[in-house]
């Protein structure tokens, strides 16, 4: 029971005030007293109090000075200042400097002080609870992230071994496989692996700090196209980069965004299209870059357009394999770097994405 | 690889299957006649220190995995760095990992002892080219 009581430290150089306070409140609270700031500090070293009441006018150290002294060391206890006279300067000073919850005029009114103490304690416990919740959330969040990270790595290692075994069986011709089962296994491996890679991208986007570096869009887009063009060699890529001013941005996130969008443009082509096209244009201005990615693929049903950036949403009008996480990562990455995305699509005709990314290039002067 | 007849390859990987795979990749492509596999980086270090007294240390390619229990690839590199030049000069380290972690990749690139980082699964051709290039430059 005793542990649940509100603990109060009262500091005042006038001993009869300390005694009066003790007499008034000892039945309701656990009370500690000190007759100087120095003695108060001694008490605080040994006992964790919830509320500190200090008299303003004390020799050597005033109440405000005392609160100011301890606010970094002991931010949690709620502070109440007692002043014998209404010195506005003191009070303003106290509230600004010392993080003081309230002030009480001397001589105190028992009911007022009682109410103030109870209010102060309510704030104390609310803050404490909030702090605990925040800590708890941070811990869960951290654990979840580490879980995602290590799971995706641990999942990937054996998958790469499986792929290695298939590669080896081809190299030494040790397997007869007239039905092409190895190829099917390989397709499944690639699918699972690209999903794992997406999870790692998601993890890195949510965790890594922004890092701005110079980006040459010609090189970046060529790299992206190189990654995906083998998936459909009949696609004609038209690239137009208009970069007359330097551009600085977060390389990892921008390449994740472009990779996902270009991969989609390559993947969602019409099977019977005679001249599949992917048009890419970049325009760099001093304050932003605008990138347009346009394809003449299968397009997106208009009723699905508003859902495509949602996690795990997959349009049902195609039977292409996908995880439904790519565009979600694009949107998350853009929101990290302060960019925007717009989409325009006609079902059966093609899709166009337009993204803008702020240019972090500081003006050279 | 007729040019370097006494070339040997040391494989360090905690995954038995990957050890076997890499062993086969090397022997099928006849990259080396001598392949030594270690599933524990400490054991590989012990072996290398037993080589210090040899009058002639053969040219050695080390395929080093990054993520391993007990001693990982980076810890191996740190210990190996204190070995005498005589043996270090004969060893060419290729790091091998399925990691996509940028931290691992940049740490590997920053290490002067590492020739290359190859991603798992090892591509037979790529492995062959990297090893051939090591000895072409000499």
From TrEMBL, chain A:
Residues 7-121 form the Response regulatory domain. The keyword Phosphoprotein applies. Pfam families: HATPase_c (PF02518), Response_reg (PF00072). Its EC number is 2.7.13.3. Gene3D superfamilies: 1.10.287.130, 3.40.50.2300, Histidine kinase-like ATPase, C-terminal domain. It catalyses: ATP + protein L-histidine = ADP + protein N-phospho-L-histidine. CDD domains: HisKA, REC_HupR-like. Keywords: Kinase, Phosphoprotein, Transferase. It comes from Chitinophaga barathri. This is histidine kinase. It is an enzyme of class 2 (transferase). The modification 4-aspartylphosphate is found at residue 55. Residues 150-361 form the Histidine kinase domain. GO terms for molecular function: phosphorelay sensor kinase activity. It comes from the Bacteria. The lineage of its organism: Bacteria, Pseudomonadati, Bacteroidota, Chitinophagia, Chitinophagales. InterPro entries: CheY-like_superfamily, HATPase_C_sf, HATPase_dom, His_kinase_dom, HisK_dim/P_dom, HisK_dim/P_sf, Sig_transdc_His_kin-like_C, Sig_transdc_resp-reg_receiver.
